[in-house]
Amino acid sequence: MIKTLFKSIREYKLPSILCPVVMVGEAVMEILIPYFMTKVVGQFTAVSRGLQTALDLNVVLTYSGLMVLCAVFALLCGIWGGKLAAKASCGFAHNLREDMYNNLQSYSFANIDKFSTSSLITRITTDVTNVQNAYQMCIRMLVRAPVLFVSAVVMSAIIEPMMAIIFACAAIFLAVLVFVCMFKVMPYFRTMFKKYDDLNAVVQEDLTAIRVVKSYVREDREISKMQTASGELYKYSVKAERILTVMMPCVTLIMYIVNILIFTLGSNMQVGNISGAVSPENIQTLIQYSAQILSGVIMVAMCINFISLSKGSMERICEVLDEKSTLSEPVSPVTEIKDGSVDFENVCFAYAKSADDHVLTNVNLHISPGETVGIIGATGSGKTSLVSLIPRLYDVTEGSVKVGGVDVREYDMDTLRNKVAMVLQKNVLFSGTVAENLRWGDENATDEELRIAARQACAEEFIDGLPGGYNYDLGQGGVNVSGGQKQRLCIARALLKKPHVIIFDDSTSAVDTKTDAEIRGALKKYAPDTTKIIIAQRVASVQDADKIIVMDDGAISAVGKHDELLKTSDIYREVFQSQVKGGSEDE
Predict the structure, then answer these.
(1) What is the 8-class DSSP label of residue 358?
(2) Helices in 267-330 by DSSP H: which ranges?
(3) H or E stretch including 526?
(4) What is the pTM of this model?
(5) Is 427 exposed, middle or buried (0-12, 13-18, 19+ CB in 10 A)?
(6) Residue 107: what pLDDT?
């Protein structure tokens, strides 16, 4: 896990290494200041006790000057260390998010199916922030704190050996306390991150479907879902924080007990079989070292808290980084597609390798270049699964799919998908203008090419009627246009790719039958050499096709023209009659 995460440090290795070194320098300076102060205070104590007649100014000025130098050096180290830690941690988080996002872009549909959208958003945002904070604490404090702690104990032992025993016992007890708390709090943090996913899922779903919520007057239900998700997150957060809040008071209490022991021994009082007198200047120094030891322990405790909090985040981030695409590029990929012919040869397909049943079974099909092919069938019959194999959104389980006479697994994937355009069942537009969305099909398309594609998709008329035309801002997800207009824009976007094969996955369902017919007519006229595969629920959308494929339960039930299928296919005839009957009743 650590090895995977550290790959994202890259150009920030130098500040990541320098920061702990600089922080050690700050810790050493802080340790030396109390020691030098002992020398200065010792001079005043000696005079007050009559051990010497006058102050030794050379000693006072020398050690006072050294204290000032140490303080200035510690200040500079602290400032520099803070800058280095900020640069290293922010850079690490930047690379981590970039690496996660880049790896997400390489995922196949099968990989994407493993993660929910809300979970991926949480991992790229909240989880990375947790790891960033932990990393900053570690490189800044996790080295400085032990150095401060050990050095303070050593200096205390030099001044008064008995103190080293007391500090060592306190350190052992504190270490046990910190690790017990960490062990107890980890399960709550893991659960807490899952609750973050649930909360994000509720917010995302609610905001995406806000129009549906309002149209059905279900605001109260959505508010209740939000309160439940937020309440669950609150519950586990409180459980985790309760454990962590106990730790700091316990650390402080132990160090106060240590201070009491210092004063007790320094006052020449009996503590069991231990007694002894400690000079006033040494008592003052020991108190300062006690504070530094306390500071070191608190820093370590804070680092462990951050590590505990981020451990679950690290695991979740590594799941995204370690996930490898189920689709692999061939060693010597084919980079040119001859034509738009499509062949299915003994194809079987299941979404999961462990699945008992196939979604598609023994599919054999040949589609010639330039043909218009309709696919019809009941919901769940495997229509979308069938066409998803052509641009290699998934790999077949058995058999092969060929485009232009070559197995799709032998093509460079960018080449294949640029020549096999797919207008998905769920149309997606992006924030920006009409022209910017259309240029997803071809980023270098001219204004004239945009107009030609829009004309073929029967979208030109409504685009010209928009304020600003092709410069009209569609809003997030295309909220400023209707469902049918959105579908026509997606078709135009696909046509701009000038593909050999274009697949319409029920992508004209939101347009009227007249516009549907006009789109099919335009495609036949302007793209005669392009293979057109149309999935539809309406028989009218496919009845003029060169061939119609009837799907049933993952297999091809029948293939033929409209008139043939009316005679030979019970499924097709039943669908046609139900739609014709429905149309007659509407009239």
Answers:
(1) -
(2) 280-322
(3) helix 513-526
(4) 0.72
(5) buried
(6) 85
